[in-house]
Amino acid sequence: MSRLITRRSALIGLAAGANGLLAGCDSLGREGPVRKLIFKGDDWNRRLQRLVTDRTALAREFAPEDRSPVFRANGTRNPDTPSYNAHAANDFADWRIRVDGLVATPLDIPVAQFRAMPARSQITRHDCVEGWSAIGKWTGPQLAMILKAAGLRDRANYIVFHCADRLRGTPYYESIDLVDAFHPQTILAWAMNDEPLTVPHGAPVRLRVERQLGYKHAKFVHRIEAVHSLTPIGRGQGGYWEDVADYDWYAGI
Ligand SMILES: Nc1nc2c(c(=O)[nH]1)N[C@H]1C(S)=C(S)[C@@H](COP(=O)(O)O)O[C@H]1N2
Ligand SMILES: [Mo]
User: Fold this and answer.
1) Which of 133, 215, 221, 224 to mutate to test the pocket of ligand 1 (most atoms within 8 A of CB)?
2) Is the pLDDT of residue 17 over 90?
3) What are phi and psi of 17, to 5 degrees?
4) Which single residue of 17, 50, 81, 161 has CA 20 to 30 Å from 91?
5) What integer pLDDT is reported at residue 49 of this predicted model?
6) What's the pLDDT score for residue 44?
7) Are 98 and 163 members of one domain?
8) Domain count within the chain
């Protein structure tokens, strides 16, 4: 946890610096080009969010009766590749999740072992950028536990989730920073509403990163990679939609 503590003190420093910058903003005018320049880009958005909200705070959790009767599936509803279909036909018994990149001990976790790990359950609201929300219950091990088992190296800054589906020929992927990776509600869910994940919802394993919008919640995860920089991954923007449609990398809610 020393890494997190280090980052927290770094955040405090950042907040102090950002305060100065914010104070200066009044004199820059509300719509001026300078202000636009300062506020452009999700890096600033992320820092501002860090300043005004505590990113380690928990997302709201709901009661079982709050669950949505219908939880829509969105994006890829079935990766439908020969390899994925073979796994699905076999109830994903041979699915493995690789954990590699900047880790001391790369892992290759069979899904059965994964399902046997201590798990967290949480009933949360999923918010899609397309304008719909749904409440569901998610169960799975905390990502923090898996990252601790693998041992992140010092240079690791981001965690990348590689998915089994392709959209228009391009593999879906997503990434988060270490604040979200070690957030207690960041889990690798293998169950939804007390049933094993169905294919439309990301079987056999999908990410839940509850403080961010829906597109960050990578489904069909087969590889988790710790990296120093996002630039060499995909087209370098940190995720499929970030690459192809300019979505914000940091989609905090
Ligand atoms: N691998 C993969 N993950 C994905 C997507 C996708 O198309 N492929 N779509 C994203 C979007 S936009 C949303 S809103 C959620 C939808 O999750 P659901 O299908 O369980 O509702 O998954 C996200 N994760
Ligand atoms: Mo979405």
Assistant:
1) 215
2) no
3) -65, -40
4) 161
5) 67
6) 67
7) yes
8) 2
Question: Which of 70, 219, 222 most suits a substitution to test ligand 1, by most atoms within 8 Å of the C-beta?
Answer: 219
116 & 241 share domain: yes
Residue type, 104: A
Is 0.85 surpassed by the pTM of this model?
no
156 and 81 share one domain: yes
CATH number (domain holding residue 114)? 3.90.420.10
30, 69: one domain: no
pLDDT, position 2: 40
Residue 22: domain span: 1-40
- Decide if 21 is inside a domain: yes
What is the number of the ligand closest to the CA of 240? Answer: 1
Could you list the beta-strand ranges (E) of 39-198.
Answer: 96-101, 107-110, 120-127, 133-140, 158-167, 170-177, 186-189, 191-192, 195-196
Per-residue pLDDT at 50 exceeds 80: no
For ligand 2, an ion, list residues with CB under 5 A: 128, 214-215
What is the pLDDT, as a whole number, of residue 54? Answer: 84
Angstrom CA distances, 116 to 18, 161, 175, 190, stand at 44, 21, 25, 11
